[in-house]
Design a protein that fits this description.
GO terms for molecular function: metallopeptidase activity. InterPro entries: PrsW. This is PrsW family intramembrane metalloprotease. This protein has 399 residues and is an all-alpha fold. It has 2 domains: 257 residues, no CATH class; 82 residues, no CATH class. The protein contains 13 helices and no strands. Helix 8 runs antiparallel to helix 9 and helix 12 packs antiparallel against helix 13. The radius of gyration is 24 Å and the shape is elongated. The two termini are 21 Å apart.
């Protein structure tokens, strides 16, 4: 069998070097992030380094929370990194420039000093910032539509770009708090932005992510629904920025509203995951004739716990290479089920479907060969009485 690049197959790209667009995008985003940090360091004084450390501190935990939404069918790491860097670089620097120009030339001259800042915070900043953050999601929808398979994918990309933006924005807030009020005020701002409400920007941008995910997986509403999602992101953002005007009561109302939105998003992810499991149970049995999957293997693929047990068994019988092969098999099988989801919704080109299906089946066959070359000493734990595609045909437990 010809050699296969598992990552390229799973990511739906041509094997070989990383795309030049990705390299260019990461370069531009990194330069923008450095420029934004340079401006903060230039005008920030002694609080810059303290603000930078505090802004970065919760990011690993928050990214880990985001990735829990994406365990059944993980997104390509390079695309997640690009989304994060876009939020931390292009979106932040663009918002810094446009918000400043808007206050200088539009809101303050028209409404006055105090009211101009309020209008900029409630209307201007949400419009500019959510448009810039959402640009990367619209770019994925245009250039990498097939990468977005459902609600969870839209939310994970929106969450990553929102976390990048929030991290850079928090540098400014922490720096300003330290310079104006010392350690006491810095602690209060850190509790508010870093502990109590660290997911505010990801939550705003998730509305755009929902719209983009819908457009990527449906034939109707491809233009209108993403724009509605973008408007929802601006609305949530504007309400958050304007809540401080109404004191603690206003903040409490917005906190409750955002918490309810967060609960709804979690429910949507759970429903989306169940839909993926249902499609695994529906579509994979039709490939039983290939020898790549049996009813017992389908049962293994339908839960995260049984997948983890399967990878552990693979490592035990074949070492790290077999564990990686099992992970490739599981992801390819999930992608195959999601491929049929696109067919049932009428958003899959027939020629692309055939090529993608064959590539995924080829990867599943390659992963399975890792176990058939050296027969495992015992039946897989998810198929103790057989049959399983991971046992040789002549085995008592094989096909």
């Amino acid at each position: 069998m010809a050699r296969v690049d598992p990552k390229a197959v799973l990511e739906g790209r041509i094997p070989g070097r990383p795309p030049i667009g990705l390299i260019a995008g990461l370069t531009v985003s990194s330069l923008c992030a450095l420029a934004a940090l340079g401006v903060s360091a230039l005008y920030g004084g002694a609080g810059f380094w303290t603000g930078l450390v505090l802004a970065i501190l919760p990011i690993p935990l928050l990214i880990a929370l985001m990735l829990t939404l994406d365990r059944l069918e993980p997104e390509p790491p390079r695309t997640l990194v690009f989304s994060f860097m876009w939020g931390a670089g292009v979106a932040v620097l663009g918002a810094l420039v446009l918000n400043t120009l808007g206050m200088i030339y539009v809101t303050v001259p028209v409404f006055g000093e105090a009211e101009g800042h309020f209008v900029s915070a409630v209307l201007g900043a949400p419009l500019i910032e959510e448009t810039l953050k959402g640009a990367v999601l619209f770019g994925l929808l245009w250039f990498r539509r097939n990468e977005i398979d459902g609600v969870a994918d839209g939310l994970i990309y929106a969450g990553m770009v929102g976390l990048g933006f929030a991290m850079m924005e928090n540098v400014t807030y922490y720096m300003r708090a330290f310079d104006e009020g010392g350690a006491h005020q810095l602690g209060a701002v850190f509790v508010l932005r870093g502990i109590v409400a660290p997911l505010s920007h990801p939550l705003f941008t998730s509305m755009t992510g929902l719209g983009v995910a819908y457009a990527a997986t449906h034939r109707r509403g491809r233009v209108v629904v993403p724009l509605i999602g973008l408007f929802g992101a601006m609305l949530l953002h504007g309400m958050w920025n304007g809540a401080t005007t109404f004191g603690l009561g206003g903040l409490a109302v917005v906190y409750v509203l955002d918490f309810c939105v967060l609960l709804v998003l979690v429910i949507l992810v759970v429903v989306d995951r169940r839909g993926t499991v249902r499609r695994i149970e529906t579509y994979l049995p039709m490939y039983a004739g290939t020898g790549l999957v049996t009813p017992q293997d389908v049962q293994m693929l339908r839960s995260m716990q049984s997948r983890r047990i399967a990878r552990r068994w693979a490592r035990m019988v074949g070492g790290p290479g077999a564990a990686r092969a099992m992970a490739d098999y599981q992801l390819a099988a999930t992608e195959l089920a999601l491929l049929h989801k696109r067919v049932e919704r009428g958003v899959a080109d027939p020629r692309w479907f055939d090529a993608r299906r064959d590539a995924l089946l080829n990867l599943m066959a390659l992963a399975r060969q890792a176990f058939l070359r050296t027969p495992p000493p015992a039946a897989p734990p998810w198929a103790p009485q057989g049959p399983s595609g991971f046992m040789p045909p002549h085995s008592p437990y094989g096909r």
